[in-house]
Amino acid sequence: MSAAETVTSTPLAGQGRHLPASGPRRGIATVCLSGTLEDKLSAAAAAGFDGVEIFENDLIASPLSPGQVRERCADLGLSIDLYQPFRDFEAVGPELLAANLRRAAHKFDVMEQLGADTVLVCSSVAPAAVDDDDLAAEQLHTLASLAAERGLRIAYEALAWGRFVNTYDHSWEIVRRADHPALGLCLDSFHVLSRGSDPAGIRNLPGPKLFFLQLADAPRLEMDVLQWSRHHRLFPGQGAFDLPAFVGHVLAAGYDGPLSLEVFNDVFRQADPERAAVDAMRSLLALQERLEASGPVALRERVRVPDLPPAPDLAGHAFTELAVDDVSGPRVARALAALGFTHTGQHRSKPVQLWQQDGARVLLNASPPSGVSPGGAAVCALAVESADPARSARRAETLLAPVLPRTRGADEAILSAVAAPDGTSVFFCRTGEGDATSWLSDFAPTDATRGAGAGLTRTDHVALTQPFDHFDEAALFYRAVLGLEPETITEFAAPFGLIRSRAVADPAHSVRIALSVALLRRGEWAPGVPDPQHVAFATDDAFASARAMRALGAPLLRIPDNYYDDLDARLAPPAELLTAMRRYSVLYDRDEHGEFLHFYTEVLGSRVFFEVVQRVGGYAGYGAANAPVRMAAHRRLRIARAGRGKRTDAKPSPKSEGR
Asked: SS3 for 507?
């Protein structure tokens, strides 16, 4: 396992992906992606989408004529499933209606050239519109009649902020009154779920009247719904909406069109369109899998992804690999030894050391690291224990995870790895002492005698700070590829800004990955630790481990007395416990399920540090309330080492302290 040697593999634009052909067609609105219309179409095709919704602004800004766009889509294997949006049409006076019909005629011309047969008509937000359902139905009937003469259809959508029509049941009532075969509904999950509407009623709608389905997830926020929609939509599985239930209702009603994404937010508007399109496709494949798992038998067959194997059970972290150099390597090795680890193995063909303490394993990879600053260290790979590593690898590849090529020596274990969104290599393996097929067989034993250790039993979690643009993508990646479930998002005020944190874990909590990101970074004041990462090890007795590590000279982080004074005031732990925590710089948290004791090392190699945790009872959190205290302590230590009494760090970092 030499993650430093791996190279990320990405698809070429226009190359296309060979995805399972059965099940519903998959589409994406061009508004989901950044760039020009040409960029967006190429990205959608490369990610394997079947069709696109053409956003009017993208077409207007393109030098391609509608006919040329049609040809381009045909060359890429994309259908044009929808043209959108047509705004502010219905429930207006005669003069404005005439102008709107003239406008519609021009758009129908464009649609014929595009080869699109359905146009999205949004419920009006215009000041000139009136609250008159009969008038709205009458005018939509007129529009549908003109569309039908040209073989086109009208999909009417209730905007969540529509002036008078803002719920799906209200839009259906108008479509029902209009009673025209070329007029139906467009259902958008954001517009329905953001209003708090009960989607179960969709099952009672006639399937032939469901012309189009648009999907978007979102976090639960208390804010203006228009701003919520414009800035915070997410791909399925990245937010809080129950999209499997929503789509299940739509399919149960008889909808047989594409599953199409209409997602926009401040990140996607600036992201690499090819990368965003892959993220989007992964979200739809994962959504189909969740639908298959929860729906009735008939639905399961309709949404099944034939080549997607189920996620194998995971049994823990096999190892965490750190990229080091000749400066950081010895320092990290000394810290591991002082934490009770033993250098038990040396890779037979690569400069990789195996350090072990019971079930906790760390690899130090001294291959020329990519992206690691001189004297630095970084988590370059993590490995999970899979019940079926080959199946895990097939699943990852089907879900569009970039497969990483590896240099493998003769008789070395076959290990599959894929790249996570932040570039971390993710290995799937089985660990077996004495098993010739285990990755451990790649390491020759050292002469070191395993010591008594310091009470560490296994890796509890790995914490990785994410680039801002990839936070939601990373959570979806680990959820889809590894079958981990996302936990509740937490936010806290850190010394250097607001931090958002989200962990993903398997049902047994044997594999935990904690992701964090700074919500905003401005100005020149920065923490001086780019993208902090840490590995947390489990112990059954935090105080015994701390005593043993201190005796071994471990570089443990000191916590100020003020923290313990406040802890006494807030939680009133027993005096003896408080004294022990203060003495050994152990932090504390508790909830209704149990307690959490943890302590940290100093930062090693500019960004990496270690944590020791003890979970009591059913506590499943990560002590997020204590993170600002740890960050400040790390900061003070750096200042003290530099011999400065005020900040004189070098240039600002655009990234921030993590969990």
From this structure: coil
Give φ, ψ of 280 to 5 degrees.
-65, -45
User: And the tokens for 430?
Assistant: 């089985």
Q: Are 184 and 209 in contact (CB under 8 A)?
A: yes
- pLDDT for 647 equals 45
Where does residue 657 fall: left (phi above 0), alpha (psi -120 to 50 degrees), or beta otherwise? beta
Angle at alpha carbon of residue 453, lines to 363 and 364, rounded to 5°: 10
Beta bridge partners of 120: 155
Q: What is the mean pLDDT of residues 565-587?
A: 97
Q: Is the pLDDT of residue 605 over 90?
A: no
- What is the 8-class DSSP label of residue 312? P
Average model confidence (pLDDT) for the chain? Answer: 91
H helix intervals, 363-413 = 389-398
DSSP state of 594: E
Cα 318 from Cα 384, distance rounded (Å) = 5
- Nearest 5°: phi and psi at 172? -65, -40
| pTM, to two decimals | 0.90
Rounded average pLDDT over 467-484: 94
Report how far apart, in Å, the C-alpha atoms of 161 and of each of 54, 122, 166, 210, 648 are: 22, 10, 6, 21, 50
Give 654's pLDDT tier (boundaries 50, 70, 90): very low
* Structural contact between residues 537 and 339, judged by C-beta atoms closer than 8 angstroms: yes
Q: Residue 657: which residues within 8 A CB-CB, separation 6 or more?
A: 465, 494, 495, 496, 499, 518, 527, 529, 532, 631, 634
Positive or negative torsion for Cα 398, 489, 274, 82? positive
Sign for the pseudo-dihedral over CA of 591, 597, 601, 605: negative
C-alpha dihedral sign at 299, 26, 485, 400: positive
Residue 640 has pLDDT above 50, yes or no: yes
Question: What is the sign of the dihedral through the CA atoms of 605, 606, 607 and 613?
Answer: positive
Residue 163 backbone phi and psi in degrees, to 5:
-65, -45
pLDDT at 648: 43
Q: What is the structure's pLDDT at 530?
A: 67
Here the contacts of 178-181 (C-beta below 8 Å, separation 24 or greater) are 178/137, 178/138, 178/140, 178/141, 178/144, 179/137, 179/141, 180/140, 180/141, 180/144, 180/145, 180/148, 181/144, 181/148
Quick one: CA dihedral 613, 619, 622, 624, positive or negative?
A: negative
Helix (H) or strand (E) holding 289: helix 273-294
Question: If you ran DSSP here, which 8-state letter would residue 226 be given?
Answer: H
545: Cα within 13 Å, side-chain hemisphere: 25
Q: What is the 3-state secondary structure of 402-423?
A: CECCCCCCCCCCCCEEEECCCC
Of 195, 166, 177, 191, the residue nearest 139 (C-alpha): 177
Beta bridge partners of 147: none
Distance (Å, whole) CA 459 – CA 359: 7
Closest among 323, 321, 609, 339 to 439, alpha carbons compared: 321
pLDDT at residue 196 tops 60:
yes
Q: 181 exposed, middle or buried (CB, 10 Å; 0-12, 13-18, 19+)? A: exposed
Q: What is the CA radius of gyration of the chain?
A: 28
pLDDT at 528 over 70: no
Crossing angle for the helix pair 133-148 and 168-178, to the nearest 10 degrees: 60
Confidence at residue 411, expressed as pLDDT on a 0 to 100 scale: 75
Task: Name 533's bridge partners.
Answer: 464, 608
| CB-based contact 649:574 (threshold 8 Å) | no
